[in-house]
Write a structure and sequence with these properties.
six-stranded mixed sheet; two-stranded antiparallel sheet; globular
């Protein structure tokens, strides 16, 4: 039996106005399966749906044994691709990274850790073979989501020193059954738009916990005379 794999929590906060006019909201936590194999199938299923919705049809999908690439897909033209998945886990200051909450995160450090995750996979694969390999990076914890500058720093680094994979994408969950793929490699143009990587050296960001969000109704202000 496969061991349970730790996960954090992520998902959207949904606000709405109910029938009596009262505003309300709730954290729609993504419900991940328990084991590595089940999580990979869950994540890849949402990715496949996103690709099909974009018109990139995956004709056949096979989940491989654990000593192989995670999936083999066949495109309508008969060509095959290996697709591997890896979770991006931001380092914790102490204890379990999945229990880490709040705190400022360096754009540069987040980029370096995400790049390290990708490079380890690239080094492990070795040289490219006849079948292209695509890497999907995902996360199960809101705090691990990289900032826009961090994403662009990774795109810049991979552009300057390409991995052996034919493509690398980052998946962020928008809802239980909806992911947004973001291309990390290859990309067109300058991801940093002329900025030097060093300009992000001391800049930081914070990801807010969606489980702690709430709807606050601003009281009506008195009319000005």
């Amino acid at each position: 039996m496969s061991k349970e794999k730790p996960t954090g929590w992520t998902g959207p906060f949904k606000a709405e106005v109910v029938s009596d006019g009262t505003p309300t909201g709730r954290f729609a936590k993504i419900l991940f399966p328990k084991t590595k194999e089940e999580i990979e199938k869950f994540v890849f299923g949402r990715y496949a749906k996103a690709m099909n919705d974009r018109g990139t049809i995956l004709a056949t999908i096979v989940q491989n044994d654990q000593n192989h690439f995670d999936f083999t897909v066949t495109l309508p033209d008969g060509s095959k691709h290996y697709i591997d998945l890896v979770e991006f886990v931001l380092h914790a200051r102490c204890g379990s990274p999945y229990m880490e909450a709040g705190g400022l995160i360096s754009h540069k450090e987040a980029a370096e850790q995400l790049l390290e995750t990708i490079r380890k996979k690239s080094d492990r694969y070795g040289k490219p073979g006849n079948t292209p390999i695509d890497l999907l990076v995902y996360t199960t914890h809101y705090r691990f989501l990289p900032s826009e500058p961090a994403v662009r720093l990774v795109q810049h680094s991979l552009q300057a020193s390409p991995p052996m994979m034919s493509s690398v994408q980052f998946l962020s969950f928008r809802d239980q059954d909806l992911v947004r793929p973001r291309m990390l490699y290859p990309v067109i143009g300058d991801p940093l738009e002329g900025h030097a990587p060093e300009s992000f050296q001391d800049l930081k960001y914070m990801n807010f916990d969606p489980a702690n969000f709430d709807v606050v109704v601003k009281p009506d202000l008195p009319e000005r005379s």
